[in-house]
What we know:
By secondary structure, this protein is mainly beta. The protein has 1 helix and 20 strands.
Amino acid sequence: MTDFNRRKFLGTAAASAAFAARVLTARQDSQLEAPFRGNKSWRPLLNGVDLSGWHSELGWHGVPGRVEWFTTTAVAWSGANPKMLAATAAPGGIIVNGVETHTTNLVADRKFGDIELYAEFMVSKDSNSGVYLHGLYEVQILDSYGKPEPMKYFDGGGIYEQVDKNNKGFGGTPPRVNACRAPGEWQYYHIWFRAPRFNSAGRKTGDATFIKVIYNGQIVHENVASGSPTRSALELPEASVNPIMLQGDHGPVAFRNIYFRPLR
């Protein structure tokens, strides 16, 4: 099978009529609440054509030399094959994490300090991903749709646990409410993030802080500090500027309309 054909679909039956029920076009669609609509202060991190401005990071399941992420104009989900997403590789404004579905993570070339970030995403049933501010501090993406509250830190909308030098987890903050939508529906995060602070000698004087996180229109976090990187973060030191990472090594996920502006 050629590389193009391998990338052509996520799922073996993606061309079937079963996927026709929900197909969304990236260049025309966004959430009605999207703050970048009609506001020129926001800048896109996706160029609507290709993956320029991003690079691959292996993660747990990545294969050296193979980048499975690709762009497309539409992505679909079907109850007939609920643990998969379907997409045709083409220049477009949606990015999908590849036919293997447990592949590399995607990292922005650009680095950010204090940032306001907006991102829309779709997952299949039981899938898992995450948005890592500074590549180090994760807001969890998980199909937690329909799960009864109280929520855990590893549920959708949670700020993931940190790890000590022995890789033992601690901390983590669950979302206030279960704001997850059903698999195959577009969802969004709107995140206000303050970078860690350092003095002139390079000593940290303030922790990274999620000032606010809105998940599908509901506030799930306010003023949550992360004193150290969360699990599965990039192997980077904490700093005043670092990149954004999208987790692609835990299951099918698609992103579109990723926008940012400096924190105000």
